[in-house]
Design goal:
The chain is mainly β. It is 5% helix and 26% strand.
C-alpha cells in the first residue's frame, strides 16, 4: 500500500495484523529482518500452550510476540488450564494488551481451548532475564533465564 488506511472493525483492537483484504486484494504484513534488538529491559517469560512439552523463553513485552493466557484471578496460584480470547486465529499481542484483555495472566500447565496443532507462545506474568555467555574463542550466545523466581512477584 502506498498510504496508511484508517482501521475499521476488530482490526482497531489488535496490535498487529498478518493479512488485510482491501477490495479484492489481500496484503500480507512481512516484518523486515533484524529490526529488533537482541537485548532489552523488563523481559517477560513466554511459553508454549503446553508447558510440559514445549519450551519457554524471554520476550520483549513491548512487541507482539505471543498470545494471551487468561486465568481466573482468584485462582491464579493453582491454574492448570488457561483460556484465550483472540480476535483472529494466530493473533499475537504485546504483554500489556494480553494483560488488559485477560485481567489476570498466569503461569499455566496448558491452554484449554487451543487445538494441538496450533503453535505459538503465550504471555505469563513471570519476569525473565537475558544473559550473554562467551566461550574461550570469543564467540557469544544469548541465554534466556526463564526461572528467576527470586525476582518474581505475582500481581
Amino acid at each position: 500500500l502506498e498510504n496508511d488506511m484508517t482501521c475499521t472493525g476488530i482490526e482497531c483492537n489488535v496490535d498487529t495484523l498478518r493479512v488485510v483484504k482491501v477490495g479484492n486484494v489481500y496484503y500480507e504484513f512481512v516484518e523486515k529482518p533484524c529490526i529488533q534488538l537482541a537485548f532489552y529491559r523488563d523481559a517477560k517469560r513466554i511459553q508454549g500452550r503446553d508447558n510440559r512439552n514445549q519450551g519457554q523463553m524471554c520476550a520483549n513485552p513491548d512487541l507482539p510476540h505471543a498470545r494471551e493466557a487468561c486465568c481466573r484471578g482468584e485462582r491464579y496460584r493453582e491454574v492448570r488450564s488457561a483460556s484465550t480470547s483472540y480476535l483472529y486465529d494466530g493473533e499475537r499481542m504485546t504483554f500489556s494488551t494480553a494483560a488488559e484483555r485477560c485481567g489476570s495472566l498466569c503461569i499455566f500447565e496448558n491452554v484449554n481451548n487451543e487445538n494441538w496443532w496450533k503453535k505459538g507462545y503465550h504471555w505469563t506474568p513471570k519476569d525473565c532475564s537475558i544473559l550473554v555467555k562467551i566461550n574461550s574463542e570469543g564467540y557469544i550466545a544469548i541465554v534466556h533465564d526463564t526461572d528467576i523466581a527470586y525476582i518474581n512477584t505475582i500481581p
